[in-house]
Amino acid sequence: MYLIWFVISAVGLWLMLPIHFRSVEHQKLQRKYGNEKGDRVGGLLGMISGWGFFIFLFGVWLSPQPRFAIPPFQDPSIQIPVVNLSIPMFHLILSIPFIAIGAWFGIAGVKATGLRVAETHKPERVISDGIYSHIRHPQYFGAILAHLGITLLLSSLYSFIYTPFVILYNYLVARKEEKELVREFGEKYKEYRKHVPMLHPAI
After folding, report:
1. Largest Cα–Cα distance of the chain, in whole Å?
2. What is the pTM of this model?
3. Considering the domain 2-195, what is its CATH architecture?
4. Lowest-confidence pick of 3-7, 30-34, 80-84
5. Could you write out the DSSP letters of every residue in 109-164?
């Protein structure tokens, strides 16, 4: 019984991957449906895959599963009676920086591109200033950090074990988006890619 909700969430997350891949194939969609309708279809697919990713990721975090504690820091714990949850103090202290920094990268990425581009994954130009001068995919980096932070906060064992798959998912999404960006922007994006890291910020 422990596994069923986790498995549904874990599988559901990966079912979003082909939808996301399709959503960023802007030129193919435009050839198939025409420019205006192709953009609408891509935007719709992008919203489905984006929201689906977060819904299923929440399922990975929150589904019933065994709890873990990083030894020897098992006590003291903070009790949250409303949800009958005990959070080891060490986990709380470790999780806050991951969650805060992850949220900052995610918000900074959305602010730099605008909400519409963040949802549809269709920029009008190569964005290389602000946060994008330090990392090519700040939102995906932020999602990985947030996953680690919330997994620690909730002490979710299956979610912790699933972490490499969350990293792989974000890497595959980023790589697919970059293939399409090269098709759309050519040498300009290739040049940008040479100087800015993909999934870790340049210091």
Report:
1. 61
2. 0.89
3. Up-down Bundle (1.20)
4. 80-84
5. HHHHH-HHHHHH---SS---SGGGGT-S-HHHHHHHHHHHHHHHHHTBHHHHHTHH
